[in-house]
């Protein structure tokens, strides 16, 4: 009996061991067959902003081409959540323009974000924002699981699906708090009202009217007003359904919006938290690649008619939108003309495209004649002033729109505008036919008015109904600041080298008078590193560079440098001084600058001046020769650029030098403005 028991126990143990072994092999086989699922990385578009994604940390894949400036980025290293995710990744150097994977982590909002230029992306500054994020390489951290699908704050995002039964919304995490999700539930039939009360959060009345999402009825509207308001609400968005009153709003005593039986609550409903932040979204600072001060001079004459005037206003609104108006980019004002011109608003009135479009819509037609010449004079004298927002550092541009032809002359007014540095563009719509040309007051008026006659500044439109097609062409031209030739005036486009006689015959007192004359001339010019630059050489038998074109770039610094020039005393070698100035000053002149040499002497030179003067003229240096007291007039005429009567001056006494400042400036500007405009 005992033997039998032992045998049974042995059999059980043996069977257990067999089963155990079988299980181990089976588990090994299963381990071999089961593979860890591969991480799916969500893809996003270049325009997706971090604030639209609810997830606090995620890995995404960016497409190529996100370096485009239309994808705005705010901040440096730490970015406001209103930034393009992929644009920020390129700015930070994590990605290049070919795209790729990145890791994004949300952090607390900052009190300020500083813009910078990095890796081909210009980020913008922002005073403050509610949430930030940082970007790093798209490598998953050990032990961290990242979402394979992103949760967006609105169903407009590519991740939203219209057939989902529920939608969860969660506020971006704030340090020290725990965000609670809000669930939006689909409802049907008779239960719609109750479900809406239980699950729909109370919308914020501060939401902008641009939202296409379902919005509650404003309290206090009469029934007719409510119908109109509801219709406008639902037709304003591309995907918004028509309104159907019925649902009792959670916060309104009046009827709000209820879907009929069998319909669903729109998945496009935006929760309160999202709506309440839309008003905080920063307005654009403007396109920095198109920093211009722009005046549109529009035709409000009776002949244009109401319909075409509306087309003109729509054209202005489209241009305002395309330009991306802002303090760091283009600013735009409008002058309307009929019998007389009137400013509708100036450069500083509306600082973004949205407000500008609204203001354009409110413009009413003046009527009267089509006095465009009078309007151009008004713009030159009144519009581009500092009080009206003219920044000085931005080119002045005036775009004149004419229906047919003006009823006054524009040539003289336009010449004065060009000489003031205003770039005149003309848009002529439905110009005169051959039979009508006999009625035109000034033939070829646009040719006489524009900044250059090479076709760049003129647009001829056959019909008012084709005007909208010129928006992009016009925007491209006015933003091409390198070709805005009229921005360069006689006062802001030269390298001026003073060559000053410091010989013994001048004397200390008279030398100070000469320096005051040099300072008085310099004051007349717009001085900066991109405008007019000033340099000075003093000579006797020898020559000395007092300061070069690159040494000082403000007017005050130049005037102080002139005061510090010390009297040298010695002989008079004017020819050698001209050669020295060509080598030490004008050899370093910028290619796009006019080169002006202003030489001041009180006697005949000990050396030959003919060859050095010819070399200066050959190198394109415009030379003005100013002689005092014992200076030889025949020598002054040799030194001066042809015609000598416009470039050489003789003063009998040093104390009378100051009288010639206006004449020298006038001749410099007259010569500049006489250049051909082709």
From TrEMBL:
Instruction: Write out the GO cellular component annotations.
Output: interstitial matrix
Record bears the keyword Signal: yes
Q: Where is the composition biased (Low complexity)?
A: 205-216
Q: Does the keyword rRNA-binding apply?
A: no
UniProt xrefs under Pfam families? LCCL, VWA
Query: According to the UniProt entry, where is the signal peptide?
Result: 1-26
Q: Which intervals of the chain are annotated as region Disordered?
A: 152-181, 193-220, 233-269
Q: Which UniProt keywords apply?
A: Disulfide bond, Extracellular matrix, Glycoprotein, Neurogenesis, Repeat, Secreted, Signal
Query: What Gene Ontology terms for biological process does this UniProt record contain?
Result: extracellular matrix organization; nervous system development; positive regulation of cell-substrate adhesion
Where is the LCCL domain positioned along the sequence?
Answer: 40-133
Q: State where the protein is found.
A: Secreted, Extracellular space, Extracellular matrix
Residues covered by the VWFA domain: 293-478, 495-664
Provide ranges: composition bias, Polar residues: 233-252
Purpose of the protein: Promotes matrix assembly and cell adhesiveness. Plays a role in spinal cord formation by regulating the proliferation and differentiation of neural stem cells.
Assembly with partners or alone: Binds dermatan sulfate and chondroitin sulfate.
Report what the protein is called: Vitrin
State the organism of origin.
Lynx canadensis
């Amino acid at each position: 009996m005992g033997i039998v028991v032992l045998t049974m126990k042995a059999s059980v143990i043996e069977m257990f061991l067999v089963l155990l072994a079988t299980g181990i092999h089976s588990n090994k086989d299963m381990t071999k067959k089961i593979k860890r699922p591969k991480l799916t990385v969500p893809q996003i578009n270049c325009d997706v902003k971090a604030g639209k994604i609810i997830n606090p940390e995620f890995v995404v894949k960016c497409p190529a081409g996100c370096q485009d400036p239309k994808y705005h980025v705010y901040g440096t290293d730490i970015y406001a959540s209103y930034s393009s995710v992929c644009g920020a990744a390129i700015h930070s150097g994590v990605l290049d323009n070919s795209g790729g994977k990145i890791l994004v982590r949300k952090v607390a909002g900052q009190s300020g974000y500083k813009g910078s230029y990095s890796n081909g992306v210009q980020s913008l500054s922002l005073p403050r924002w509610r949430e930030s994020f940082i970007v790093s390489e798209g490598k998953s951290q050990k032990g961290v699981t990242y979402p394979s699908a992103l949760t967006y704050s609105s169903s407009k995002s590519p991740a939203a699906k219209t057939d989902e039964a529920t939608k969860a919304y969660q506020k971006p995490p704030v340090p020290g708090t725990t965000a609670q999700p809000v669930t939006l539930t689909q409802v049907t039939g008779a239960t719609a009202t109750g479900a809406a009360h239980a699950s729909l959060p109370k919308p914020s009345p501060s939401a902008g009217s641009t939202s296409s999402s379902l919005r509650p009825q404003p309290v206090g509207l009469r029934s007719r007003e409510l119908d109109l308001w509801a219709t406008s609400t639902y037709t304003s968005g591309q995907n918004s359904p028509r309104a159907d009153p019925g649902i009792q709003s959670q916060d309104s005593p009046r009827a709000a919006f209820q879907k009929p039986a069998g319909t669903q609550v729109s998945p496009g409903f935006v929760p309160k938290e999202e709506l309440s932040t839309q008003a905080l979204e920063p307005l654009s600072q403007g396109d920095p690649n198109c920093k211009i001060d722009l005046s549109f001079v529009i035709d409000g004459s009776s002949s244009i008619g109401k319909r075409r005037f509306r087309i003109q206003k729509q054209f202005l609104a489209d241009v305002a939108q395309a330009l991306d108006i802002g303090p760091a980019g283009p600013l735009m004002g409008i002058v309307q003309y009929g019998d007389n011109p009137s400013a509708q608003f100036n450069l500083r009135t509306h600082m973004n495209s949205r407000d500008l479009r609204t203001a354009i819509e409110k413009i009413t037609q003046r009527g009267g004649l089509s006095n465009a010449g009078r309007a151009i004079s008004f713009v030159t004298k009144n519009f581009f002033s500092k009080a009206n927002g003219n920044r000085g550092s931005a080119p002045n541009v005036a775009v004149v729109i004419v229906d047919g032809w003006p009823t006054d002359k524009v040539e003289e007014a336009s010449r004065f505008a060009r000489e003031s540095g205003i770039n005149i563009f003309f848009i002529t719509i439905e110009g005169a036919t051959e039979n009508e040309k006999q009625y035109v007051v000034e033939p070829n008026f646009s040719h006489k008015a524009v900044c250059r006659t090479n076709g760049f500044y003129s647009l001829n439109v056959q019909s008012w109904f084709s005007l909208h097609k010129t928006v992009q062409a016009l925007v491209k031209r006015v933003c091409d600041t390198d070709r805005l030739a009229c921005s360069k005036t006689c006062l802001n486009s030269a390298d001026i080298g003073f060559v000053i006689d410091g010989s013994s015959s001048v004397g200390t007192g008279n030398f100070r008078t000469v320096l005051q004359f040099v300072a008085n001339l310099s004051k007349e010019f717009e001085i900066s590193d991109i405008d007019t630059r000033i340099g000075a050489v003093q000579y006797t038998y020898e020559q000395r560079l007092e300061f070069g074109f690159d040494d000082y770039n403000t007017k005050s610094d130049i005037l102080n440098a002139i005061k510090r020039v010390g009297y040298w005393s010695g002989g008079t070698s004017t020819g050698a001084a001209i050669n020295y100035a060509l080598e030490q000053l004008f050899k370093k002149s910028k290619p796009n600058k006019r080169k002006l040499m202003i030489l001041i002497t009180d006697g005949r030179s000990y050396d030959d001046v003919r060859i050095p003067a010819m070399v200066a003229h050959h190198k394109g240096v415009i030379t003005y020769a100013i002689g005092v007291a014992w200076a030889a007039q025949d020598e002054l005429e040799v030194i001066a650029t042809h015609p000598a009567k416009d470039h050489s001056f003789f003063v009998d006494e040093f104390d009378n030098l100051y009288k010639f400042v206006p004449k020298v400036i006038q001749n410099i500007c007259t010569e500049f403005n006489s250049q051909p405009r082709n």
